Amino acid sequence: MEELSGGRESAIYRDGEVVYRPLQPWSSTIHLVLKHLEQANVDESPKFLGVNQDQEILSFVEGNTYNYPLIGAIATNTALMSAAKLLRKIHDSTASLLARLDVNAHRWMLDPREPFEVICHGDFTPYNVALLEDTVVGVFDFDTAHPAPRIWDLAYSIYSWAPFKTDSNDKLGTISEQEVRAKLFCDSYGATELEREQLADAMIQRLQALVSFMRSEAGKGNESFAENIEKGHLQAYLNDIKYITENKQKIRYALCNT
Ligand SMILES: Nc1ncnc2c1ncn2[C@@H]1O[C@H](COP(=O)(O)OP(=O)(O)O)[C@@H](O)[C@H]1O
Ligand SMILES: [Mg+2]
């Protein structure tokens, strides 16, 4: 058994083609999503194989994994474009599940957000995908999946992939270069004009929701969130909200004009 890095410590293990992750109160909902993706031939996502006491058993997704700072294959336009196409594929394929799901009858880690258009991954970032050479061929870590409009996932993904980040470890490129990458993501996803117009505001709202969630979890005694706040992660999101707010008009202009 090998411990997998890139997420929580001492929690995620691999044994050959199988991955063990801790079961959570919302896991049975996520298993429905993973089973649906398998039936819809979204082979890039892990397959749900079963549960074992307090762990879920998923298939191992092949490929190289990365984290910030974005260097090498993960920083290429090929990676960005293939990520956007995969997000589109996941969204499109979840619409039919959502149509027959009673959203409020299931538990979710993140609150469902209306209008329910698709099931968002919730954390579709460079550290939750797998690459073969420069192409994104897999995605994992579906715990944060929840029903929401497409723009809600697009906002957090583009924030992470452009990336509109100011932290010295996480930042990449100038604001203009980030806008070019954000536009490429929108183009590859097939974002509508309205989604492009709304994107900068949606990024701010999505980050504000994340900050509220982190504060509320830490307030409930969730130690990993308290630790995240202590490490400065919440402050980093607040700094990024300020950065995106300052550049809002410029981002909107770059996304909406060809
Ligand atoms: N099904 C999977 N296939 C391949 N690698 C995985 C899979 N699940 C997790 N991993 C690896 O383990 C790391 C941590 O898992 P992840 O599900 O992202 O945990 P966390 O929820 O703590 O972020 C990931 O970054 C990835 O490298
Ligand atoms: Mg992860």
* Class computed from helices, strands and strand pairing: alpha+beta
**Strands in their spatial order, largest beta sheet:** 1-2-3-5-4
Taking all residues together, what is the mean pLDDT?
97
Number of separate domains: 2
- Helical run tally: 8
Query: What is the total tally of β strands?
Result: 9
CATH homologous group name of the largest domain: Transferase(Phosphotransferase) domain 1
Radius of gyration: 18 Å
Give the CA-based shape: globular
Q: SSE order, as H and E? A: EEEHEEHEEEEHHHHHH
Ligands in the model, by name, code or SMILES, are: adenosine-5'-diphosphate, magnesium ion
| Largest sheet geometry | 5 strands, antiparallel
| CATH domain fold name of the largest domain | Transferase(Phosphotransferase), domain 1
Brief sketch in words of this structure:
It is built from 8 helices and 9 strands.
Protein model, in words:
The chain is of the alpha+beta class. The protein has two domains: 2-59; 72-256, Transferase(Phosphotransferase), domain 1 (Orthogonal Bundle). The chain is 47% helix and 14% strand. The chain is built from eight helices and nine strands. The chain has helices at residues 27-39, 77-99, 150-161, 175-189, 193-219, 223-230, 233-246, 248-256, and strands at residues 2-3, 13-15, 18-22, 48-52, 55-59, 118-120, 129-132, 135-139, 146-148. It has a five-stranded antiparallel β-sheet with strand order 1-2-3-5-4. Strands 6-9 form a two-stranded antiparallel ribbon. Helix 3 (150-161) runs antiparallel to helix 4 (175-189), helix 3 (150-161) packs across helix 5 (193-219) and helix 5 (193-219) crosses helix 8 (248-256). The longest helix is centred in the C-terminal third of the chain and has 27 residues, at 193-219. The structure holds adenosine-5'-diphosphate and magnesium ion.
